[in-house]
What does this fold into?
Amino acid sequence: MSKAKKMTLPSIDAMDLIIYKPKDLIWAKMKGFPPWPAMVVEPPVDLINQTRKAESKCVFFFGTRNFAWIETASIRPFEGTWKEELSKVGKPNSFKGAMNDIEKYINNPEEIDAMVMLNVANHSSEADFDKIRDGLNNTHEDAENGAADNGVEDDVAHKSATKRTPKSKTVVASTSKAKSNSASKSATKRRRSSKIIANTKRKRDNSESAGHGINDDYSAAEINATPIRRKINTDALNAIGSTSRRNMNTIALLDRPVVSRPEAQAIDMNVRSQTLVERDIQPSNLTFGFLGLGVMGSTIVKDLICTGHKVVVWNRTMSKCKPFLEAGADVKDTPMDVVEAADIIFCCVSDPKASKDLVFGNCGVLQFKDLCNKAYVEMSTIDPETSQDIAEGITQCNGRYLEVQIHGTRQEAEDGMLIILAGGDRTVFEECHSCFKTIAKNTFFLGAEVGNACKVNLILQTIVGVSLVGLAEALALADRFSISLKDIIDIFELTSMKSQLLLAKGKEMAKGDFNPQQPVSHMQKDLRLVLSMAENLDQSMPVTAITNEVFKHTKRLGYSEHDSSAVFSFFEQTIPKRADSETPSWYP
Ligand code: NA7
It folds into this structure.
């Protein structure tokens, strides 16, 4: 026997005499795992409602940073003669991560204390719930004027009591995302601390909009500085009366951990890509308008300005125009104004709807009425139908239309290494030559028919999306086996499967570094467009459909604006929890 036997905790004399209090550092033993470094904490609400054995403590596991009820018989103090034995290496990487985590906590408890407090505060402490329960009891007692004494069952009090009476099962509730232990510590730290801020924001939004009786009168800055306990408006919950249990569940649902947006990367107009410097580009004399200064748009405009093109810009969020104004671009108030000032107008916005808004909407391109001598270049990744609609609108106003699909990442745009797929009016294609030479390594003209470039680009995106999900799924399995992701990637690099993209994305997944090159939201949008195209043709695309679902769910986990490599988090989050039946007995 016994592998399991080796993983048991040492017995302690007079073990029953140990009373564990919140913040006590401990070893906690869960079935299938070695004794794990942990800390006794106040339970978050998801766990308050959960049944557990008597004499259980809510514990916070280091490393994985999740919570569970553990029987005191399965707990030992962290410090003791057993520590050396229990800390021995030769265990999974995740265990080593947990040991590092607790050491980090011992040296600097603030970050984890804040995180734990926030989770507890998010979900209310047991004391808060006692207050609620007491409040409910008091209210009810007042109303019923001692009815309970007369043998009339107090429904509210009964529900509160039920909530606190353990049933037969113990469930692991993960309130913070389980982390890959292979991920770099700094990336993990960054994600965790940013999660705290974002969580705060979400809570405030929820409380403002949903009005669940929770007062979140604190700011993200405050929460960063000190752990703040959420205030529970017991009056409101009292008023809800017997539905309080449902409300607590709602609170738990709304308060599920969220991930902060990735840091916006400020555009540095002074940094020039070496590739561009070496490329000999003679800028066109024409004036180029640019609508949309998102990640791709701003990178492309920067390249154009650096290579001496005359540029006029507009962006929905005007503040993004500032660095370009300082770098010499002209800034206009509306798309229509850009049309007036430019010969050729590029558009690079998030999705088909935004593209159409800019052309057909209020102050949009077509408000200029006569587009004679003007050309419009649609660069957003859109579906063929949208491109055809825009082409029709532009040509009906005497303008020329070119569909340009850009394939590549932000870094590739910065290095002038995109692939350009164009279709439509060839004269516009030629007039844009110096721009394309600036931003792309290869440019293809796919004919006069509008829509072809969109189709080709979406097909390429299908390959990217499906490959990323396959990569993420495989790496998550490796992580589950505690095999170093770095080793897997190193070996992968030696195989014929290696590709620049998969290697880069694999490394990002291993590090947990999801800085946006191509955000999850755009990838999912592209997959949605692919499926819609396939639907029109009755073409079956089961793998793409599943890939789309995975990206959709990754978005819902809060990674919408992170890089597509964040799809790895889907598999981290969905690693199956142990079945209830496996959890009751943690010790042989
Ligand atoms: P980003 O970084 O998400 O930027 C999106 C841009 O689109 C940004 O400038 C947005 O303006 C703009 N946008 C979004 N919706 C609208 C509406 N309704 N009206 C006007 N402008 C809008 O995307 P990328 O630059 O990475 O990618 C752009 C495209 O290239 C996309 O199709 C990718 O799939 C490929 P904001 O700054 O938010 O005001």
